[in-house]
Amino acid sequence: MTTEPSRIPAAEPLRVDARNNRTRIVEAARDLFATQGLDVTMTDIARHSGVGVATLYRRFPTKDSLVTEAFAEQIELCASVVADALADPDPWRAFHTVLEQVCAMQAVDRGFTGAFTSRFPDSATFDQLRARAEQGFGELADRAKASGHLRADFTFDDITLLLMANGGIVADSRRTALAASRRLVALMLHAFRATGAEPLPPAPHLGLQHVVRPPAAH
Amino acid sequence: MTTEPSRIPAAEPLRVDARNNRTRIVEAARDLFATQGLDVTMTDIARHSGVGVATLYRRFPTKDSLVTEAFAEQIELCASVVADALADPDPWRAFHTVLEQVCAMQAVDRGFTGAFTSRFPDSATFDQLRARAEQGFGELADRAKASGHLRADFTFDDITLLLMANGGIVADSRRTALAASRRLVALMLHAFRATGAEPLPPAPHLGLQHVVRPPAAH
DNA sequence: AAACAAGTGGAGGAAGCCCTCCACTTGTTT
DNA sequence: AAACAAGTGGAGGGCTTCCTCCACTTGTTT
């Protein structure tokens, strides 16, 4: 019976200075995670937000919780990209648009992959949104296949494969990383098309949880 | 004027027990690097070789030097794969065989990418072999393009792109990782072929030094 | 404006990493 | 077999990381 319209955070009123600090912390975290990856130290984030570490820890009791909060927007954006695509009447356009957009997000944000693959025991929302995205990907692939645009031997794991591969792209400038990612996606989509395709080696049995870079998080 | 037939290591005679320990260390290191990546601790490597850390450090004054030694075989194998391909009269077969083999090596060994991208200030051999491999890749690509099998808008950076992408593949079993890598390479090679190719987005200007996973090494 | 809960910063604890030191053991040489 | 250099193991130094503690400050309430 909270008065809050959506979201969960409400909880406690929070003093105005505290609220400002919290905002600055999340902004700094997003910035640093995006440009340097999830390995930035808590001290660094604190310094960039102009607060002490204690303040940071008072608001986010663990680094994971900060990561979760920092990427909440991103995963919602992700989910909406999938939702939009599901509303698109053109199956092939929907399919390639989703992959292009998600891969672009991944390429531009160095923390993206790590954030989405590390475990977040506290955040059910996260897992839930991810599961829905996964389901949406499958649906889009099925439609594209049914429409004859996507090769018949395409499997869901090929999406995982592309996301893993795209996660391997790192460059020192965001622009370069994005360009590289775009080219990779274009090449892969070309290969995914149902043109006179020679047979592929059997699809590996993966699952979305494999989109993981072990040393990245934590 | 050493009596040693090839290699460099000779240097000091080394007592037999020490020689055995050294061998065991390198074997353990190779094993652990391959299965767990470059992040395994020196203590771990020492324990797995049945020696104390001091022994390890006496033989390899720094972790980097151990990595270098552990991957010496691999880079030579790499170089010979390139050399073999350069001797192949069929340009397309040479081209795809090289990429398949190198990517397979990378997929099977979790430390591979990190080892080849971190700096090894002491080992000129390493950089030299890498440079030669780079040159060989370029030559093979040129030949494949000249023969009309490789699309005209292919650039050297596309090789880098594939290696980065392939480096993103991680799975908990070696078999799975290899299967995934094989499929990725097959898809990419399909896209590289000179069949009625629609234009690609412009190639990113990379360079082989970008095949890097920042948090991996050291 | 007084009073108090809420908020704050920085020192430092616990753990993990690479690497060093040194008293002890062991292979090798004469 | 005696003597000695070479080799060894494990404690711990220095650093970095995440996170906690507590004396102090500040916004808010009556």
TrEMBL record, chains A, B:
SUPFAM superfamilies: Homeodomain-like (SSF46689), Tetracyclin repressor-like, C-terminal domain (SSF48498). Gene3D superfamilies: Tetracycline Repressor, domain 2. Residues 41-60 bind DNA. Residues 19-78 form the HTH tetR-type domain. One of its GO terms (molecular function) is DNA-binding transcription factor activity. Keywords: DNA-binding, Transcription, Transcription regulation. This is TetR/AcrR family transcriptional regulator. It comes from Umezawaea endophytica.
